[in-house]
Amino acid sequence: MKKLILGTAALALSASLAWADTVRMGTEGAYPPYNFINDAGEVDGFEREVGDELCKRAGLTCEWVKNDWDSIIPNLVSGNYDTIIAGMSITAERDEVIDFTQDYFPPTASAYVAASESADTMKGVIAAQAATIQAGHVAESGATLVEFATPEETIAAVRNGEADAVLADYDYLVPLVEESNGELMFVGDPVPLGGGVGMGLRESDGELRDKFDAAITSMKEDGSLNTLLKKWFGDDTQTY
Amino acid sequence: MFSFCADPDTLGTFRWFSCYLTTGVHMSFYLSFFKVLLLLAITAPVALGFGFLGAMSARSHIPPVSWLGKIYIAIVRGVPDIAFFLFFVIALDQVFEWSRHQILCPEWTEPVRQGSDFIVCPIAKLPLGTSPEWVHETYGFFLAVITFAIVFGAFAANVLYGGMRAVPRAQLETAEAYGMSRRQTFWRILVPQMWVYALPGLSNLWMVLIKATPLLFLLGIEDIVYWARELGGTKTSRFTDYPHGDWRMWYFLFLLVFYLAFTRVSEVVLERLMTRLTHGQATSGGEAQRKAAA
Hints:
The complex is a heterodimer.
Chain A: H1 2-19, E1 22-27, E2 30-31, E3 35-37, E4 43-44, H2 46-58, E5 61-66, H3 72-77, E6 83-84, H4 92-97, E7 99-105, E8 109-114, E9 125-129, H5 133-141, E10 144-148, H6 151-159, E11 165-169, H7 170-178, E12 185-192, E13 197-201, H8 206-221, H9 224-233
Parallel strand pairs in A: 1-5, 1-6, 9-10, 9-11
Antiparallel strand pairs in A: 2-3, 3-4, 6-13, 7-13, 8-11, 8-12
Chain B: H1 13-20, H2 24-58, H3 63-78, H4 81-104, E1 113-114, E2 117-118, H5 133-166, H6 169-177, H7 182-212, H8 224-232, H9 248-278, H10 284-293
Antiparallel strand pairs in B: 1-2
């Protein structure tokens, strides 16, 4: 019996020690350049590089986990992974359920993309990914909102005429517009939305949040975050 | 995969596709087909086992056991699959973790539910936070198998229950006349004869089970539907060596062919099984076989 207790205690100790070092990073893997699956089948993108660097600076071992956007917050709070790093903008509504680190991507504009110049972004049918700040904006703007589970489907809706335009992050749309051979184009004015992109964590995980916050601060100070921003979003992107 | 794949832009169509279809992501796609087949291979017998237990307990002569069987059949059959899959898996996971938490961390004082967070002590987590990703995936797969087995077990229980009642009363009476006990009658007379009555219902269930495997995706398992959606999506040249437009239609067409081929093979196999089970039975099918042979 004594042996058993000792054994359990040792196991508990080793488990909790190792626990402190492994962090599971939840991402969507379908929103380039923020995060996507590369040809080798691995998570890649701006957030992959930032996340790996943050983990290195905070002295953590990180593992990448893919999860659908729809259920990305429920799975965080029920403990399937420890952070959300998926291009998630910091908003007051989300902040009620989870905690955010400081932003590692500055607040930028979202943009409308349509299949013709004449698309009406104010009163027409606008596609957006469900549970995003863009969907929230469209719902309030007076346009008709059609929501989709993935960003890919929002673009497909514009291409096949189901929606007049799509509202999404500017940087997600740029490569799609560039390679559409003129089928897609930016319309209307950009809409400044959100308070920048931050990492999401459980509200009870204050210690982990402080670690990541410190790591983000150090990346901002030595300019390495700006280098990554320029690498993935081009030289014209906003930096810190 | 191939040495000429280094610069895909310069390749002809055939070579381009031979490179494209052998990338790492495509390997994950092919692997997910085995995941689905494995799920079916494990779930079908387990669900049948659940069904058999359910049917046995439903026709038990001890009231509480009989109620248990009937309640299981009624509740699981009545709840929509999607609700069951979304709710039950998270609840099951939390029940496991909560029980481990109670056993392993009696000294833990903080509440398990803090607002929307569900927090158990680190060593009670399932799987442990330190486990490699494949352990997490296997655990998710295991939860999926249990959920599928419980859902389809309830339907199978009802089918088997019906099959047991369809065995002609005369057969059982004869067994009793020979002095067989209730248990002997059940195992030697009833069970061997009920399959022929249950098989049409069970084969229906098998078909539905095959078609229900895309629900795996709801459970966070990267199955064939996930990969078809991911791979078929528009790819721009900035993020891949193999840019293409929206090819989801082709990928889903491939899934359609896969499912049709699979259900067709199942139909043939089940047809043969039926012929076999009918042999020598006191049914119209058995009678037809006897006449054809004579």
